[in-house]
Design a protein that fits this description.
Helices cover 72% and strands 3% of the residues. With 175 residues, the chain is mostly helical. The chain folds into 2 domains: 79 residues, lambda repressor-like DNA-binding domains (434 Repressor (Amino-terminal Domain), Orthogonal Bundle); 90 residues. The longest helix is centred in the middle third of the chain and has 43 residues.
Length: 175
C-alpha cells in the first residue's frame, strides 16, 4: 500500500464531517479499528501520509454505499489515488524515461561524431576561427534542442559542409 500526502482539503473535509455527524475523533478511530488517536493525529498532521484504503475507509464512515462518489472525491478533490493508478503511472513514466535516455544517447553519439569529424576537417584545413566556434558549441547542452536545429546550426557554422553528407545525416536522424 502506497502512502500519499494528506492534503489540507482532506483534513478540512474530515473535520467538517465529524462536526456535522457529531462524532469524536476517538469514535471514528474505533470504527476504523485504528488506535484511539489515529484520526486526531491525521487532523493535526502528526500523521502526514495515508494509504488510499485508509482514506477510503474514513470517508465510507460518512458516506456508506457511495463507493464511486468516495473514489471520485479522493482522486479529484484530495489527490489520493488507488495504488493501481500510481503504479501504472510510475510504469509509464519509467518506460518513457528509458526511451528518452535511449534517444538522448543516440543524439549525443551523433553530435559527438559530427563534432569529431568537423574538428578533424577543420584541423586539416587549418580553419582556426571555425574550430573555436565549434569548441564553444561543444560546451553547450544540446539535450533540450531539436537535433535538426543543431544540425542546421552546425551547417551554418561550417559553410563548406558537403550538402549531400548533411542530407544523409538528416535521413539517418529522421529514421
Amino acid at each position: 500500500m502506497i502512502k500519499q500526502a494528506v492534503s489540507k482539503k482532506f483534513i478540512n473535509y474530515i473535520q467538517f464531517c465529524l462536526d456535522k455527524e457529531n462524532i469524536s475523533t476517538r469514535e471514528l478511530s474505533e470504527k476504523l479499528e485504528k488506535s484511539s488517536a489515529y484520526i486526531s493525529q491525521v487532523l493535526t498532521q502528526k500523521i502526514r501520509t495515508i494509504t488510499y484504503e485508509n482514506a477510503f475507509s474514513i470517508l465510507k464512515e460518512f458516506m456508506p454505499g457511495n463507493d464511486s462518489v468516495i473514489e471520485s472525491m479522493l482522486i479529484e478533490q484530495f489527490g489520493i489515488e488507488p495504488d493501481e493508478i500510481i503504479e501504472s503511472r510510475l510504469k509509464i513514466d519509467e518506460e518513457n524515461e528509458t526511451e528518452t535516455v535511449k534517444r538522448m544517447k543516440v543524439c549525443e553519439s551523433i553530435i559527438t561524431n559530427i563534432n569529431n569529424n568537423l574538428k578533424r576537417k577543420m584541423f586539416e584545413e587549418k580553419d582556426v576561427e571555425k574550430l573555436l566556434i565549434l569548441q564553444e558549441y561543444s560546451k553547450m547542452d544540446f539535450n533540450d534542442r531539436n537535433l535538426g536545429e543543431l544540425l542546421d546550426e552546425v551547417a551554418r557554422i561550417y559553410k563548406k559542409a558537403n550538402e549531400e553528407d548533411y542530407n544523409k545525416l538528416l535521413k539517418i536522424i529522421n529514421n
